[in-house]
């Protein structure tokens, strides 16, 4: 399935979002424009604006407001990515040098802080306190998730609850906010807002699980980073947690690596990454993703009849089954 | 004097108790810096009702965030990628984000959207100025000093203008002296490496502040 074809109905609005982001990032003094445009040109799926726009179709959409919300969400996502790259010491994102690699850590941090303030400012024009209420809660949860993730690095004794809470904060809430804010800004009723938020949340959970699976099963070329990067960087994701539960050999190997993540052990862990990629843990992880996808589709069913439901269903299935 | 110190320590203790993330060790914070920010902002407006207390807390969060993000750059030594150093960079980045999220959460959660609107511009401006300092090598030593002062005084100016405080100049000088000239802060150390004339101008301005009897002790 081609995502672009599915999204053709909102293409003019997505073009507007893209233009507006470019307009905002280019309006600043040269260095901020350079760094922001560098981020922008790296591309991305823009799934947050997509969900804002699609969710807004259920309400008496006032298009201008919805575009601003979609732009703000994407800018916040961009700000968090530029900080993530500093935190992860990433040098490449989507095949391009990261801001911290191309310039330096300080430039990346201050660009992220600037974009964050600019995106909140964008929402200020809309005079809708609920937008801020939702978004500020989400951003706060996102930072809690990031701190937890760092604390949990190289920690073997993690259970599923901990993993699900982390991905909820790290990914699912921002996607849930996209559908919720799209619904709020287009004046959906309360029940529609709740169901659209649930839809976004479950899609976000499925999306992150798939991301974590692909980290094992995809290729370095498609991922733009080494296969098994999460585990190599000390992060336990769903396939690894399940492998630890299911297989003593994987558990021992990961334990040894986490105790001493040196080059020697890195060589050994690569075999474990390969083992996990072809283990039943991958199917089990897919089953979790499918369960969240089903919940998302159920939330969608409870929404009033609308042609856009078909598009949302297609996107949900696409994101839940994607191979890269 | 002791009671003043105790009061300031209590402000720090209350802030840390209320807002520090459980996983973050207290020694991650520049406690002295935090103490002085809490004190200076309180001196600007000593009496706070509950709404004003929220704004005060929110602005302190943003100030902490802006300054701890400086440490991300400061701690980065390309040839020293030890685990501790890397962990330090990562944690400083996260703590800064955590406190800026508190700024947003407190102001939006309490409906203080006009305050939110008011403080976003100086937040942007401080970050613009930092990036300019990192990348504009044509700046003169005086321009650099002015910009460094702007970084440290930006939120104070915004706080004073939010409350339309008219009698702020003396305290403003004290704040600038304290954060920029009493000792060399990160930005001055960095700028000295970029422009050797900065140290001379910095010393000149430091003595000018001291001659006018600015004393923050």
TrEMBL record, chain A:
<keyword id="KW-0808">Transferase</keyword>
<dbReference type="Pfam" id="PF00348">
    <property type="entry name" value="polyprenyl_synt"/>
</dbReference>
<keyword id="KW-0460">Magnesium</keyword>
<dbReference type="InterPro" id="IPR033749">
    <property type="entry name" value="Polyprenyl_synt_CS"/>
</dbReference>
<protein>
    <submittedName>
        <fullName>Polyprenyl synthetase family protein</fullName>
    </submittedName>
</protein>
<comment type="similarity">
    <text>Belongs to the FPP/GGPP synthase family.</text>
</comment>
<dbReference type="InterPro" id="IPR000092">
    <property type="entry name" value="Polyprenyl_synt"/>
</dbReference>
<keyword id="KW-0479">Metal-binding</keyword>
TrEMBL record, chain B:
<protein>
    <submittedName>
        <fullName>Heptaprenyl diphosphate synthase component 1</fullName>
    </submittedName>
</protein>
<dbReference type="InterPro" id="IPR009920">
    <property type="entry name" value="HEPPP_synth_su1"/>
</dbReference>
<dbReference type="Pfam" id="PF07307">
    <property type="entry name" value="HEPPP_synt_1"/>
</dbReference>
